[in-house]
């Protein structure tokens, strides 16, 4: 069975630790289930921390070395196997000798006279997060597993199955039964699957028998069941029931394997095990079909080309999925920001969840860095542990300013001074509002409501009014300028004029309908993203990019997966791999929940 560590938790009432003592292990309280109690002949424990022990010789708590697992040298079954060959151990079962388990003291309940004692250990693999749902499920399994064992044992008495291995036929001859169940992640079960079956892929459940009938032991060492919570969560979503329901189904499947059923040896054996799964689940009153039937239904649906179920993961469930990308590069205006220039709470939660799972979110925008920090601060995404800060990497001002590790500037490019002068003179003479961007500052020539809106609505730095064109040009180096006008004014007047006027000296970009940007030729968000990836030692294969405007085209083309929101320009949607929901429909969150994991 899985390592028994109860001796490390003796005595039951050790002397209290001195106030200066340093705790050596985390203690996670079990959920209180006052209204539920296990059968009187069931003994169950939840494994939460393996190494905390009390030394009676020194009267001190200490950390004991990990016990050697007894999982090695056993045969086991898995749901998916391509051939019918008998499994043989390939060596040590653990994927890593450093694997440990969290455990609390087993709570024993006196069994009734002559009743079979069921000893069940529920363990949580160390790399699974301390998730309330997982801990609650572990506590429920402490009650559910003995129930399932009792019903399954009763079924053996009247069993007339032809294909079941009858090495275990009557459990009444044993004093007690031992069973362990381990909840783990995909990586752990994948390595276990590789070491024992030479199959390098994730599976949902593995069963490992420890029964040795030739030894005539008074204790039935039934074995171990290993369940991947991550795979179970995905299957639960696909099959439309709760995670607890799916784990119960997997536990029943694993238990029947330990009792001699094997669906892999023949069609008749598969039919018999499928029937017993359904009977057991029905007897226990648990939801869902048996695992064999569920797998068959999934295969049938795939072969018949039926419409696939919605592949969007549920909010709050990304912890059960492995990220497909190391980076998400995300635009701001028209993408992360909705039509009110706000970040929705749904988008904010999706970004936080992605970051918590180790995905690095990098902003790539035409905005200045202070504007991005201000916008994300409103939803608690700015700062050291957020998405953006003065010390985080990012691509700003359409790729003209790129910040790398520790927020250090790694690239800056300025607009041709002659183009700057011509644009400023045009603004002054035609009274068309203009903003000149210089790193974290904005400059303008006169006050205007549109200039104010850039600060109040778009959160750009408040524009400083310069007394003349010469004063503005002499103040600082300018990276880009923006003309502000109506959508019609930009489309019919400004864009045609400046496309012709700048020609080979600059590029005009229209990120939003009522603004026209003039930037140095040959620069774009895409080039800025590429430069940042080189600086970080990463490649485009590691990123997913989300945008909407024509200034996002190169970035989406560069990314392994480019997602254009449905409110984006036709040019942007034409180059994207996927067209997602609009910015007013939480398009960023939708993209993360569908494609990032």
From TrEMBL:
SUPFAM superfamilies: HAD-like (SSF56784), Metalloproteases ('zincins'), catalytic domain (SSF55486). Keywords: Endonuclease, Hydrolase, Metal-binding, Nuclease, Zinc. Gene3D superfamilies: 3.30.1240.10, HAD superfamily/HAD-like, Metalloproteases ('zincins'), catalytic domain. This is Uncharacterized protein. Its cofactor is Zn(2+). It holds the Pfam family Hydrolase_3. GO terms for molecular function: endonuclease activity; metal ion binding; metalloendopeptidase activity. Signal peptide: none annotated. It comes from Carpinus fangiana. InterPro entries: Cof (IPR000150), HAD-like_sf (IPR036412), HAD-SF_hydro_IIB (IPR006379), HAD_sf (IPR023214), MetalPrtase_cat_dom_sf_prd (IPR023091), YbeY (IPR002036), YbeY_CS (IPR020549). Belongs to the endoribonuclease YbeY family. The keyword Protein biosynthesis does not apply. GO terms for biological process: rRNA processing. The keyword Aminoacyl-tRNA synthetase does not apply.
């Amino acid at each position: 069975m899985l390592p028994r560590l109860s001796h490390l938790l003796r005595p039951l009432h050790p002397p209290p630790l001195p106030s200066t003592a340093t705790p050596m292990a985390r203690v996670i309280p079990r959920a209180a289930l006052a209204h539920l109690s296990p059968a009187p002949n069931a003994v169950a424990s939840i494994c939460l921390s393996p190494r905390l022990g009390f030394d009676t010789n020194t009267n001190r708590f200490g950390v004991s070395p990990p016990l050697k697992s007894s999982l090695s040298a056993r045969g086991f079954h898995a749901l998916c196997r391509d051939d019918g060959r008998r499994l043989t151990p390939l060596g040590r079962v653990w994927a890593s000798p450093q694997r440990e388990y969290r455990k609390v003291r087993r709570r024993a309940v006196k069994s009734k006279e002559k009743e079979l004692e069921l000893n069940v250990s529920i363990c949580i693999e160390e790399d699974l997060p301390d998730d309330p749902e997982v801990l609650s499920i572990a506590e429920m399994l402490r009650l559910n597993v003995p129930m399932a064992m009792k019903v399954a044992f009763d079924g053996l008495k009247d069993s007339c199955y032809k294909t079941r291995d009858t090495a275990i036929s009557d459990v009444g001859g044993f004093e007690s039964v031992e069973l362990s169940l381990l909840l783990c992640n995909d990586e752990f079960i994948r390595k276990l699957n590789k070491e024992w079956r030479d199959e390098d892929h994730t599976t949902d459940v593995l069963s490992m028998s420890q029964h040795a009938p030739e030894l005539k032991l008074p204790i039935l060492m039934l074995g171990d069941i290993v369940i991947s919570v991550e795979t179970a969560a995905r299957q639960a979503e696909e099959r439309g029931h709760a995670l607890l329901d799916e784990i119960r189904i997997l536990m029943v499947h694993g238990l029947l394997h330990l009792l001699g059923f094997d669906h892999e040896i023949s069609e008749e054996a598969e039919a018999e095990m499928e029937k017993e799964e359904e009977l057991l689940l029905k007897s226990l009153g648990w939801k869902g079909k048996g695992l064999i039937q569920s797998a068959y239904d999934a295969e049938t649906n795939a072969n018949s080309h039926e419409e696939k179920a919605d592949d969007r993961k549920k909010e709050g469930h990304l912890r059960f999925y492995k990220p497909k990308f190391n980076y998400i590069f995300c635009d701001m205006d028209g993408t992360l920001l909705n039509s009110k220039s706000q970040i929705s709470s749904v988008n904010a939660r999706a970004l936080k969840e992605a970051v918590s799972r180790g995905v690095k979110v990098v902003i790539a925008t035409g905005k200045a860095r202070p504007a991005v920090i201000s916008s994300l601060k409103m939803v608690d995404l700015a700062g050291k542990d957020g998405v953006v800060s003065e010390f985080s990497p990012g691509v700003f001002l359409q790729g003209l300013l790129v910040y790398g590790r520790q927020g250090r500037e790694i690239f800056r490019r300025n607009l041709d001074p002659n183009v700057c002068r011509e644009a400023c003179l045009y603004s002054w003479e035609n009274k068309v509002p203009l903003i000149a961007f210089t790193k974290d500052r904005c400059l303008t020539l006169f006050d205007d409501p549109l200039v104010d809106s850039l600060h109040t609505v778009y959160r750009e730095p408040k524009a400083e009014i310069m007394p003349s064109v010469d004063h503005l040009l002499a103040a600082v180096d300018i990276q880009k300028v923006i003309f502000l006008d109506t959508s019609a004014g930009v489309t019919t007047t400004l864009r045609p004029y400046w496309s012709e006027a700048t020609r080979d000296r600059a590029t005009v970009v229209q990120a939003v309908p009522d603004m026209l940007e003039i930037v140095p030729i040959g620069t774009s968000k895409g080039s800025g993203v590429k430069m940042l990836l080189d600086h970080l030692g990463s490649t485009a294969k590691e990123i997913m990019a989300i945008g909407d405007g024509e200034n996002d085209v190169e970035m989406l083309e560069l990314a392994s997966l480019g997602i254009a929101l449905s409110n984006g320009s036709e040019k942007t949607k034409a180059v994207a791999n996927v067209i997602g929901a609009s910015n007013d429909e939480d398009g960023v969150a939708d993209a993360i929940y569908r494609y990032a994991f």
